[in-house]
Structure formats: structure tokens, C-alpha cells
Amino acid sequence: MAYQLKTRMLFCDWHMPDFLPELVFDYDDYFEGVRRTGAEALIFMCKTAHGGSLFPTEVGVTNPSMQGDIVGEVSRRAKAMGLEFIAYYNVVLSWELPKLHPEWAQLGRDGQPLRMFLYPCSCMTPEGCFCPACREKFAARFGYQLEPDVFGVREWHDLLTYQADTREAFLAHFRERGNAVRPGLSWSWNGCGSPVSLSATLHHGADYLSTEAHPPEYLHAEHATRYCEGLGLPFTLFMPESQGSWGDWTVTTPAVMKGLSAIALAHGGALNANQVPYPCGDRGGKVPEIVWDTISATFAFVAERVAHCRGKRPVPVAAVLHSADNARLLAARGRAGEPGWQTWEVFHHEHTLSQLLCENHTPWEILPAETLLERLGEYELVILPHLPYVDGDLAERLRAYVRGGGKLLVNHLTSLCDRYGERLANFALADLLGVDFVADSPYSVSYLDQIDPSLGAPAIAGLSAWYVEAQLRKFRIGARGTHPSDP
Q1: Which helix or strand (DSSP H or E) is residue 358 part of?
Q2: pLDDT at 473 over 70
Q3: Rg of the chain over all Cα atoms, to the nearest angstrom
Q4: 168-185 burial, b for 16+ CB within 10 Å, e for fewer?
Q5: Which is more confident, 483 or 113?
């Protein structure tokens, strides 16, 4: 049976440092606040990014300011209230682990330890480790040395592939070891529902997806939600209780939290509201009342509507194809110093397209580029927002989709590059799009009008409104047989 994710979730992102004079937790006050919210699940910090665990441990480092067993007591009380309890364990970040195992440090290109979000991090190569172990493994796999100062696009592409594969192997090993100790655990990890991932398989093995929705970024929440929905797994949006991001001082309003929650709810997702007790001082161990009030109002709003949203699927009208391979291609060219090539371009095009489709009230979804033809055939329109590289398998599926009566909308770069971003002589999908690449236009085009009708059959190509809004570079294209250079 598939994992059943609770809808109203709390997240206690309690990253407490190890240098505090005391670390207190008012259990009675905290669980009275939890009770008021009507929460169904609690995710609680077990090991922080600072490195200390909030429970006694002989494996790692116990926070020296803690008295007793905070995680154990929170777990017991949560289960007594009928809440699902989910342990949150920060694996890579730590100030303490480098003291115990300096050889595990993640190293940068200069050989110095890397920091992620200002924290020292251990090696599982999510950010680009150049430690001796990674150098050895990389050379064994690809047959040449890991020397990024002389890397071109292909070598950077290999390195990004190595990093993604290593991270996912680490996660698989982590799950295997955990399940050996306690069979039947459910698993998720940061970013397995993130649309900016360079991997099409990061979510494999997850029981539910997780990604972030920061108040008041509604468009980003919409984009992330539809990406998770398209992967077909339960998902939750992690929402800070403060404006902008984690740890800010300005508490967000109930209206904003309800707006973000409505986006998650409308697509069958869960919401995950953060709250953090003060660790010490006069308010030590307590969450501000205004935070409990905001979450309570939001959860009441959700509880009234969840029955109408659970298990629902959108009407299949427009499908936007997301390609992690193209994100990796762009990242590789950006790392190699190629101007105009950045990973965020995929994200930006999808973001802008999200706004366009929402404002036009068009039902739409984001689907992986690997989606099978049978499912693509359910949609009236398939959109390729930014796929310079279209592999042979996807190309055949798109041709079959159009032959079956489907409509295709692509941006100007679609299928004009190989897997490393090198320009092809012509669009790989030229036969499908009905156009040939001629040259880069020397002009900046603000709009197009009186388009030759032949450009609309059998597919709509290169006329994407979001691209006109977002980019200045344009291509001069000619319908076959109509360009002055044609015979």
C-alpha cells in the first residue's frame, strides 16, 4: 500500500547550536500549541546543522546544553496525541563531525573545506567535492583526472553526472542501513521534490516528496507544487513561519499562509508549517503565540477543504515537459564559463510559463520529459519551455504524439543542440516543426505579427510568448520553401 501522507503537518526546524548556556523545551506549553492547531503529523529535528543531536547518542555528538532526551520525550507525547512522528536528521552539515573525522570533509577546487549555508559539510558530493576519494572514484569511472581548472563542457557534464549519481547512491545506502535496523520505515529527503534538481531520479526511493514554499512567493509555490504532482508521489510543501525564509524575524500572516496552503491543497499536497521554540531566556522552550495563532487559522482553513481536494487530479489539457538532463547541460556550460548558459534558465522559463498559463486559466501540469507516450496522449497540448537538447527517444514520442492529433508548443532553442549544448546544423525536430534554422537574428524582436499560417502545421514552433517576454536573443527561421535561399 502506498504511503499515506498527512495533510496538516508541523515542522520543528530546531537547529540549536552547541554553545548555548542552556537548552530548554517546555513540553506542556508546546503540545498545548500543537493541540490547538489540529495538526496530524509532527516532523522534529533530531540532529541539527550545527552537529549536535537532541537525544543521547554514542554514535555522534549530543548537544552539551541539553538535559534529558528532548527527541524521546517529544516523540512519546506526539504519539500519545495520535500524531504521526517523523524524525528529521541533518546528515551532511555539522560543526562537530569535522573534529571527529576531518578526512570526511567536502573539499573545494582549492583543496580547502567547503561550507554549505555557512556550515562545514561532509562528502557525498552534492555540491562538488574534490577530496582524494572523489578524485580517485571519478578517475576510475571516466578514465581521466578530476582537474576542473582545465575542464570543458563535456568534462563538467561528467562531473555533474558523477556528483548526482554519488549522492543518490549515498541516499540508497542510508535507506538500506536504516531499514535493516527498523524495517518498514518511510523515507523522504530535502530536494527530492525540487524542480531545480540536475537529476531525473533524485526522488527514486522516496515515499513522499518534499520541497519548500517561502511566503509570499506564490508563483514559486505553484511551480514546485505542479512539479511534485507530475512525479506522481505524495508531497508536502515546507513553509517557514516567517516572511521570506527560515530564521527571519517577521512572522507571516494567516492570509499568506492560507494562500500557500491552498496551492498545495488544490493539487492534492500537504502543508508543513514551521515553528521554533526559543531555546533559552525568559521565553525559553516556548513558541510565540502569534505563530501558533497563524498556524491554527491556516489549519482550520485547510480542514474545511481537504475532503474536496484529496485524491483529485487535474483535467489533462496542457502538459509542460521538465528535463533534468537539460538543467545539467546548462549547468555544465555555465561551469565551463560559457556566456548565456545557466541552470536557472530552465527554472526561469518554467516560472514564467506558470504565470502565463495561470493567468489564462489553462489547466496544466508539469511532467518529466521521460513521460511515456500513452500519458502524453491524454493532453491536448504539450509544451517544451526550454529543452535545447531533445534525445532520440523523446523526439520519437513527440512525433508520435503529433501524428495522433496532439499540439506542440516549443521555444526557439528546442532541439537545436546536442547533449552537451553544441549547436547542430539544424533543429533535430525540423521535420516535426516544419521550420529550418537559418541564422541568429541580429535584431531584438519585441513581438511577432502576421505569421505565415504554414508555421502552424503540424506544430507551433518558436513563437513562445514567455520567451518574447524573457529573452532578447532570437533566431531567424524560414518555413520550408519560403526562404529566399531555398531553391
Answers
A1: helix 344-359
A2: no
A3: 25
A4: bebbeebbeeeeeeeeee
A5: 113
Residue-wise burial string across 450-473, b where 16 or more C-beta atoms lie within 10 A, e elsewhere: eeeeebeebbbbbbbebbbebbee
> Residue 146 gets which letter from DSSP?
-
238 and 189 in contact (C-beta within 8 Å)? no
Give the span between the Cα atoms of 2 and 472, in whole angstroms: 46
Cis bond before residue 316 (omega within 30° of 0):
no
Query: What is the Cα–Cα distance from 190 to 238, expressed in whole angstroms?
Result: 10
Residue 243 pLDDT exceeds 80: yes
Looking at residue 369, its pLDDT comes to 95
* Per-residue model confidence as pLDDT tens digits over 295-329: 999 999 999 999 988 877 888 999 999 999 999 99
Count the alpha carbons within 13 Å of 264 in the hemisphere toward its beta carbon: 35
- Residue 211: strand pairing partners: 237
Q: How crowded is residue 102: how many other Cβ atoms within 10 Å of its Cβ?
A: 10
pLDDT, tens digit, for every residue of 154-202?
A: 999 999 999 999 999 999 999 999 999 999 899 999 889 998 888 999 9
Question: Do 474 and 446 meet the contact criterion of CB atoms below 8 Å apart?
Answer: no
| Maximum CA extent, the chain | 85
CA angle centred on 43, ends 273 and 201, rounded to 5°: 95
Give the Cα separation of 3 and 184 in Å (integer).
11
Q: Are 185 and 179 contacting, i.e. CB atoms less than 8 angstroms apart? A: yes
* Mutual angle of helices 70-80 and 27-37, in 10-degree steps: 40
**Whole-model pTM?**
0.86
Quote the CA–CA distance of 51 and 122 in Å, as a whole number.
11
Strand partners, 386: none
CA angle 70, 76, 77 (to 5 degrees): 90
Phi-psi region of 307 (alpha: psi -120 to 50; beta: other; left: phi over 0): alpha
Q: What is the mean pLDDT of residues 441-446?
A: 74
Q: Give the burial class of 144: count Cβ atoms within 10 A of its Cβ; 0-12 exposed, 13-18 middle, 19 or more buried.
A: exposed
CB 284 within 8 A of CB 70: no
Positive or negative torsion for Cα 446, 452, 453, 458: negative
